[in-house]
From TrEMBL:
Record keyword Isomerase present: no
Protein name: Aldehyde dehydrogenase family protein
Lineage: Bacteria, Bacillati, Actinomycetota, Actinomycetes, Propionibacteriales
InterPro entries: Ald_DH/histidinol_DH, Ald_DH_C, Ald_DH_CS_GLU, Ald_DH_N, Aldehyde_DH_dom
Cross-referenced SUPFAM superfamilies: ALDH-like (SSF53720)
CDD domains: ALDH_F16
Endoplasmic reticulum among keywords: no
Amino acid sequence: MSRFEYAPAPESRAIVDIRSSYGLFVNGQFVEATDGKPFKTVSPSSEEVLAEISEAGPADVDKAVKAARKAFEKVWGPMSGRDRAKYLFRIARLIQERSRELAVLESLDNGKPIRESRDVDIPLVAAHFFYYAGWADKLEYAGVGDDPQPWGVAGQVIPWNFPMLMLAWKIAPALAAGNTVILKPAETTPLTALAFAEICQQADLPPGVVNIVTGAGRTGQALVEHPDVDKVAFTGSTEVGRAIAKSVAGSDKAVTLELGGKAANIVFEDAPIDQTIEGIVNGIFFNQGHVCCAGSRLLVQESVYDEVLARLKRRMGTLRVGDPLDKNTDIGAINSAAQLAKIRELSQIGEDEGAERWSPECELPAEGYWFPPTVFTGVSQAHRIAREEIFGPVLSVLTFRTPAEAVEKANNTPFGLSAGIWTDKGSRILWMANQLRAGVVWANTFNRFDPASPFGGYKESGYGREGGRHGLEAYLAH
């Protein structure tokens, strides 16, 4: 399969107005940090410095928590659900109005292709706010009692792989339930969260209802451990999730953790082959593999292994790696130098342990952080690349003979976030779904999300659910 050559089709940067520096968003205003050192956010595709960002120290976090507490007690908590819904609807519409700007900003700061930011991330962000706006005056029907009450002040820490979408997953249900929030975005991708602060101002959201404090691990720790935070929500690595669980143990804080994954994408011999190949590619190469539920372990039934692998390699040869703002790009930049180093290290370990590595011919840009789409064959369950989360565009391929063997291999992991099943038999899909220890199981598709559908995992993939009624329940005391 030859690859078509397309002329560059770059999205314009002119729609985005990035300030040279940003303060913290506390009590409805941008303010200077008092006890933190500023840091720079860099575009991963070019290593260009985009802006200088304030670091929130413990004193800054304390101010944000006090603002959130006051807003909860005086304004947002006593407000009727109907009136809260008006603000959420207003925010959703503003996100839609500024969708092109937000998509460009996300691709610049994160490195993901503009097609994904434009067609997936930002539309889902608006959809989550619309969805939870509809719940705000119907909390008694959420299934958590006749008079559900908000926890109060929610401290939320989000990762860098889906900055704006993870913000929506956290903030929208929290506000609908009547909580106020302090959000800490990832230090490498703060710009869309700060743009969201501007949207809160545009929507005339009461001061203190949403506060955004930027920084790295020190800032997140100060927020999570603050004694006046009632609810903690975290999405990120299992290692940090464990630390958070320990730090809040013994307190009365409510906690939800959405952590890492090592999902199995299981292909049976009767699977619709064309659809399956696209699902495999979407499962591991979407967002450069920076997806906690990525289908990073491909389990293929032996009878179709050769055909699946040959067609997968052909399809990988058509993927375009390059400028995230080019609408033709399929795979953008790795988010940071540190993440690129981790991907390289684990890939090298895969080769050292005897797996066979293959990537299509691919010219990578000279500047920025890049890694080609990669597949490993000859992988066993003992290989580190089959056990550890690489969080990059790297696929490990294993084989199986029977459905029981597929289940055993799929469940042989400390994670339990997601899985995929590809088969023509509905009965097999239902049987497999019941056997797999995964919070989300996709059938003949992968990486599909909807605001009304809950998402979350088992084991080291965390606990609690986000999205749907279950995501609302996490922000209601019961």
